[in-house]
From TrEMBL, chain A:
The keyword Lipid metabolism does not apply. This is AzlC family ABC transporter permease. Pfam families: AzlC. The lineage of its organism: Bacteria, Bacillati, Actinomycetota, Actinomycetes, Kitasatosporales. The chain crosses the membrane at residues 47-69, 158-184, 190-209, 216-232. Its main location: membrane. It is found in: Cell membrane. It comes from the Bacteria. InterPro entries: Brnchd-chn_aa_trnsp_permease.
UniProtKB/TrEMBL annotation, chain B:
This is AzlD domain-containing protein. It comes from the Bacteria. InterPro entries: Brnchd-chn_aa_trnsp_AzlD (IPR008407). Pfam families: AzlD. It comes from Streptomyces durbertensis.
């Protein structure tokens, strides 16, 4: 996926390919005299991600406005929540008439993965104590992707800061423009704008569906949500559909355990096989 | 007013969870099960949200209308690796056209 295809601050966590070539997998450190060009490249990649993501703030502004939020409420979300999928989820749940608690819970659970980025970024960036409360606000998919793609702390800090600043500025600016523009449009349904929300979710979901476990989770979640929608109050079907994740994880764990047990029973020749699948599984996780 | 409550809760919750990652000592959240759950949880939520907002109505029932056509267009755009904004634009445009055609 190229940088221009990176959407809201909740896209899949991998770095854009343009951020990768400068970071050799071998960990070779650049000689000091090449540092300035490296810096320029980090800044250029960071700004590219910022512009692409910032533009999709426009879609959020329009969607939030169409869902009945005021311009102030829409802008408050982008300023204070600043994690795209959670913002879209909250707005959608409120538009469907969900109560504020279940709506906020769905948005919260979508934001939980930022804790895992924070954990990795904390080790990489060694953020000073005083800056931590500020830096935390900028921990999203894109800043994590750019920072983690760098091969030294200096470049990682630069990438995190420039990406964070660019995305934050543009995301909030375009949110405002989208909210103001939508007001001038009149009935958002006539323009098909009620399809923007689900299309955003689909666009965020697409790149996440790489393994069979991820696809199984998505299918199970859709079935659960559809089955519960007619019988439960708005907001709850989505929250309960999240149970698809631990369910698939549990079934996956049981299956691989029974597979390993069968292999173990067949003798030592099979252990090499088992180790290889283990490695493949780990590599697959590392890509995410 | 309830909208502001929801905004406040979401802002505080999402911020604290970001800060938590930066603040806890390494190793606490590094258990493989938790990491895999963190990957699968957004998948489940996004899939459910897509379905509910495409087929759900204001009265809490299921319906097949212009939005489904728009989502199909977005799916095709995604398969063609179109940029994010093109995917959204395809969904919006097709939904609008279908509404006009449907009267």
């Amino acid at each position: 996926m190229n940088a221009s295809a990176i959407p809201a601050p909740d896209e899949a966590p991998e770095a854009p390919p343009s951020a990768n070539p400068a970071a050799p997998a071998t960990g070779v450190t650049s000689p000091p005299e090449t540092a300035p060009p490296d810096d320029r490249k980090v800044v250029r990649d960071s700004l590219g991600v910022g512009v692409a993501v910032g533009l999709s703030g426009f879609a959020f502004g329009v969607t939030a406005s169409g869902a009945g939020l005021s311009v102030a409420q829409t802008c408050a979300l982008s300023l204070l929540v600043f994690t795209g999928a959670s913002q879209f989820a909250l707005v959608g749940a409120l538009a469907a008439g969900g109560n504020p608690l279940t709506a906020a819970a769905g948005a919260f659970f979508l934001g939980v993965r930022n804790a895992f980025y924070g954990l990795r970024l904390g080790q990489l960036l060694r953020v000073p104590w005083r800056v931590r409360p500020l830096a935390a606000h900028w921990i999203i998919d894109e800043t994590a992707a750019v920072a983690l793609a760098q091969d030294n702390r200096r470049a990682a800090r630069l990438g995190f800061t420039v990406t964070g600043a660019a995305v934050y500025l543009l995301w909030n600016l375009t949110t405002l423009l989208g909210a103001l523009g939508a007001g001038a449009l009149g009935d958002p349904r006539a323009w098909g704008l009620d399809a923007a929300g689900p299309a955003v979710f689909l666009a965020l979901l697409g790149p996440m569906l790489r393994t069979s476990a991820e696809r199984a989770t998505a299918v199970l979640a859709v079935l659960l949500a559809m089955a519960l929608l007619p019988v439960l109050p708005a907001g709850l079907p989505v929250l309960l559909a999240a149970l698809a994740a631990p369910t698939v994880l549990l079934l996956d764990g049981l299956r691989s355990r029974s597979k390993e047990a069968r292999r173990g029973g067949r003798g030592t020749r099979r252990t090499g096989d088992g180790r290889r699948t283990g490695e493949e599984r780990r590599t697959g996780e590392g890509e995410r | 007013m309830t909208v502001w409550v929801a905004i406040g809760l979401t802002a505080v919750g999402c911020y604290l969870v970001k800060l938590l990652g930066l603040a806890v000592p390494a190793g606490v959240l590094e258990r493989p099960v938790l990491r895999r759950l963190a990957v699968l949880l957004p998948v489940a939520l996004l899939a459910a949200l897509t379905a509910v907002q495409t087929f759900g109505t204001e009265h809490g029932s299921l319906a097949l209308d212009a939005r489904a056509g728009g989502l199909a267009a977005a799916g095709v755009a995604l398969l063609l690796r179109a940029p994010f904004l093109v995917v959204i634009a395809a969904a919006v445009a097709v939904t609008a056209v279908l509404r006009v055609l449907g009267g």
